[in-house]
């Protein structure tokens, strides 16, 4: 322990929830905020801050989100990150009308593909898509995987206040399953119906609101039967599973109790307990949670092949957190899985 050189020799660090933003998209965010046409209070809270603040934090993040070259690679080198799995930052295109979202998803994917071509040893791409038009989204995912070499899909939680538990979005799940790539369900600020008490208390963002929104989203996919319909679909959750691993026991108990009592007629029995989908279909990444007890807990209850390292660059670029992640107690084989081989297997990186 403590000899970072031997660790570096023993494993590569692959960071799996790392964000970028095309300059065009940030300009469109500013225009949407200024237009008064936006109906998403979470978007106004988050992007009103990042695009308006002169703080050091906001300035650094806006600058680094747009860089897929020298600055980003220098930051990776400075913290010992050999590869980033890069995805379009939240809420991506999902805040726009369908036509805007479709063309912007193609633009973002093409920009990311160019960066992967320039730095194939350092970046792997996830496909952005416009769930506003599920058929277009499925086609774009296929183009990204088959033509651009991307290795997964990014969905930034709700799309204009709608969730993937709704069967109208299932073409997206079907495409991901058929192409054998995971869907990374990344946070967004809570949807319109959920956000108000969080917003009034300043808790709507990454401090807690993201986890409430995204944990509920993932759980609702399970209870809607998405994984019975698409049993090979893999879902990735950041922030150590948005708290869901801690709830495994109670989720099973209360789901079964609700089903037995027929409390909600639309809630149908599942083939397996809720916890089984969380163990088998779901993978979690650390993204900004470099905390040994929580990492060890997730490894214990989900299995150590389902827990992966992520930094959450550029939102949480802290060198000491990489060192803290290196020091989490686990044996050498488990550590290599955590930083490297789980990501290689999940995103199919061996062939790259
Ligand atoms: Ca993130």
Structure commentary:
By secondary structure, this protein is an alpha/beta fold. It has a single domain (13-347), classed as Metal-dependent hydrolases (TIM Barrel, Alpha-Beta Barrel). It contains 17 helices and eight strands. A five-stranded parallel sheet has the order 4-5-6-7-8. A three-stranded parallel sheet has the order 1-2-3. α6 packs parallel to α7 (134-146). Residues 1-6 have low confidence and may be disordered. It binds calcium ion. The site of calcium ion (CA) has 7 residues, from β1.
Write a short abstract of this structure.
This protein has 352 residues and is of the alpha/beta class.
What is the element layout, followed by pairings?
Elements: H1 4-10, E1 14-20, H2 23-35, H3 41-52, H4 56-65, H5 70-79, E2 83-88, H6 98-118, E3 123-125, H7 134-146, E4 153-155, H8 170-179, E5 183-185, H9 196-200, H10 209-223, H11 226-229, E6 235-237, H12 239-242, H13 248-261, H14 274-280, E7 282-285, H15 292-302, E8 307-308, H16 319-326, H17 332-346
Parallel strand pairs: 1-2, 2-3, 4-5, 5-6, 6-7, 7-8
Helix pairs in contact: 2-3, 3-4, 6-7, 7-8
The structure holds calcium ion.
